[in-house]
Amino acid sequence: MRKPFRPLAVLVGAAIACSGLVCACASSQKPTPSAEQVRDGEALPPAPPVPAKPASTDSPTAPTVPGGAAAVNPPKEPEPAKDTLSDGQLARVSELVNTAEIEQAKVAQARSKSAAIKKFAAMMIKHHGDALREQQKLIKKLNVTPVDSGVAGSLKVDSEKTLDSLKKADGAGFDKAYVQSQIDGHQKVLDILDKHAPTSAAPELADALREARAVVEQHLRDAQALQTP
To answer: In this structure, is residue 81 part of a structural domain?
Structure first.
């Protein structure tokens, strides 16, 4: 008499349950089912054990270095500002500014008919003359040598153009041109000090730069006060 049919799902579940070590060891003590038993659905041969896949040590996002440690990118050092001037370069800029202001003020004293502009020009000659002398003392004390730069070169070209145009101007046109040149020139110096002055300057130089900026800012306001509508 044939044995009753056992559902295939039950047999498959039994085979999966026997795929571990316990069932693998026990299967060595049981006889291998015959072909007739398998055909009748009484028994199925045990499924061969599936070897466990070793865990991958590769990581797509964490590169490794010899020894198995994850590679760590060192923090980047902040790059110094590329447009910062050195002490020597800033000394050259200051020298050019003071000299240009004195030369332009001398032209103003000779050509202007305005008492207010002549007074302003006299102040420029005194203040920038004093600044030149003080700078010479300071750079000698700090052993700083003036050095040319792109900023100094551009400033020199602009100063020469301004002086040339002032020498060609006359009458009311001169006063307007001189006042405008003083507004533009002092604003440009403020921009240079704010953008290019070294942040790690010597204490004495840093103090001198702060004082110079305050004077230049006051000169700008004085020049703006001379501007007529």
So the answer is: no
Tell me if the pTM is above 0.85: no
95 shares a domain with 195: yes
pLDDT tens digits, 119-168: 999 999 999 999 999 999 989 998 999 999 999 999 999 999 999 999 99
Give the C-alpha distances (Å, rounded to integers) separating 55 from 52, 76, 175, 210: 9, 34, 85, 65
Residue 63 lies in a domain: no
Q: Which domain holds residue 145?
A: 87-226
Give the span between the Cα atoms of 33 and 31, in whole angstroms: 6
User: Which amino acid, one-letter code, is at 151?
Assistant: V
CB-count burial class (<10 Å; 0-12, 13-18, 19+) for 225: exposed
Q: For 146-206, what is the HEC assignment?
A: CCCCHHHHHHHHHHHHHHHHHHHCCHHHHHHHHHHHHHHHHHHHHHHHHHHCCCCCCHHHH
